[in-house]
Design brief:
The protein folds into three domains: about 1-185, HUPs (Rossmann fold); about 215-275, SH3 type barrels; about 280-370, Translation factors (Elongation Factor Tu (Ef-tu), domain 3, Beta Barrel). A hairpin with a 2-residue loop joins strand 14 and strand 15. The protein is α/β, with parallel strands linked by helices. The strands form four sheets. Strands 12-15-14-13-16-17 form a six-stranded antiparallel β-barrel. Strands 3-2-1-4-7 form a five-stranded parallel sheet, sandwiched between helices. Helix content is about 25%, strand content about 30%. It has eight helices and 17 strands. It has helices spanning about 10-20, 50-65, 75-90, 95-115, 160-165, 175-185, 205-215, 360-370; strands at about 1-5, 25-35, 70, 120-125, 130, 140, 165, 220, 225-230, 260-265, 270, 280-290, 295-305, 310-320, 320-330, 340-345, 345-355.
């Protein structure tokens, strides 16, 4: 096959490219320029897509002896990922930009361009496994290394995208990958992993949003509607947040408060005690399936964060919407997060949380009796 190896400049994509090449495929390395004003150097281990990263990727490609190109997708990234991120927070939701980048950039814009140029597949350094069934279909599964498993952020892939995707690192651990990079003489063998949100290089999401949206003062209220503080913009808060709430301590009983709701329409942040955070009924939109959509009510595992715990659940697909009932309450689930469904290690699909509520006491008791 002719394969585009997406090379970020990190150790994972470097080893992934090497493995695809050694498997006998014709490989071309591609670095995605996603920033319209790329920094020269990284800030610590935060961020990615700097000029330094592009240089690291090029040096690996040179060592492998494969062609290397930089594809400018900065405008598409700004529109589909960065602008979407701002709009979601402005609407009181908490998005996951990594899922949006995988859906819109790496396995849409990049894959579409690769296919248009005559390539057969895209390989990345994600830690996940593709399993081929006897009928030729492909399934997405968790990686063997649970600490590095990235199947959650790949839960937005559909069957067609999965058929054109290669994940050579799914059967390895991170120490094994770093050792292989060292043995191959890659200069990135000890390069730190990028983390957090790549385009918020300093990690200060609230400050980053404030610079784009400006201050929008409003009230912080408790669950009864009583004003207990002030804020500079409801977009700077997310459900489950405890710190930086701007509360008037003199009006409280000393117990900690958490964000229960971000009411963007009224520019209010609602806070309350931790016990009110638990939810067990989710409605998701923008459902995506890694294979056929499930029929009827199915038993699954539901994961709500990239490295969060999988919770037993039942789910029902309804067109573009997904209804999920968790077997136990989970705290801090915010609209805009993604829920990814699993059947064992297999990724079934995903949806974006639109509503997160509690089952009534009676319905919860009925569920517990079953």
């Amino acid at each position: 096959m002719r394969v585009v190896a997406a090379m970020s400049g990190g150790v994972d994509s470097a080893v992934a490219a090497a493995r695809v090449m050694e498997a006998g495929h014709e490989v071309v390395g591609v670095h995605l320029a996603l920033s319209q004003q790329a920094a020269t150097l990284r800030e610590s281990a935060r961020g990615c897509c700097t000029i330094e990263d592009a240089g690291d990727a090029r040096r690996v490609a040179d060592r492998l002896g494969i062609p290397f190109y930089v594809w400018d997708l900065a405008e598409r990234f700004r529109h589909d990922v960065v602008d979407d991120f701002v709009a979601e927070y402005e609407a009181g939701r908490t998005p996951n930009p990594c899922l949006r980048c995988n859906e819109k950039i790496k396995f849409a814009a990049l894959l579409d361009k690769a296919l248009a140029l005559g390539f057969d597949a895209v390989a990345t350094g994600h830690y996940a496994q593709v399993v081929e069934r006897a009928d030729g279909g492909r399934e997405l599964h968790r990686a063997v290394d649970p600490a590095k498993d990235q199947s959650y952020v790949l839960g937005v892939l559909d069957a067609d995208q999965l058929a054109r995707s290669l994940f050579p690192l799914g059967g390895s651990t991170k120490p094994q990958v770093r050792e292989e990079a060292r043995e191959r003489g890659f200069s990135v063998a000890r390069k730190p992993d990028s983390h957090d949100i790549c385009f918020v290089a300093d990690g200060d999401t609230r400050g980053w949003l404030t610079r784009r949206l400006g201050e929008r003062p409003g009230e912080v209220v408790d669950e009864s509607g009583r004003v207990v503080g002030q804020h500079a913009g409801s977009y700077g808060f997310t459900v489950g947040q405890r710190r930086g709430l701007g509360l008037d301590r003199s009006t409280l009983d000393g117990a900690p408060r958490f964000v229960l709701e971000v009411d963007a329409a009224r520019n209010r942040v609602v806070v309350g005690p931790q016990e009110l955070l638990g939810v067990d009924v989710l409605v998701g939109d923008h459902a995506r399936w890694c294979g056929p959509a499930p029929e009827g009510v199915v038993t699954v595992g539901a994961q709500l964060r990239a490295h969060g715990e999988e919770v037993p659940a039942t789910a029902r697909a309804d067109g573009d919407r997904l209804h999920v009932r968790l077997e136990r309450r989970v705290r801090g689930v915010a609209p805009g997060q993604s829920v990814v469904l699993y059947d064992g290690t297999r990724v079934v699909g995903s949806a974006t949380v639109a509503q997160a509520t509690r089952a009534t006491t009676a319905s919860r008791a009925a569920t517990d009796r079953r």
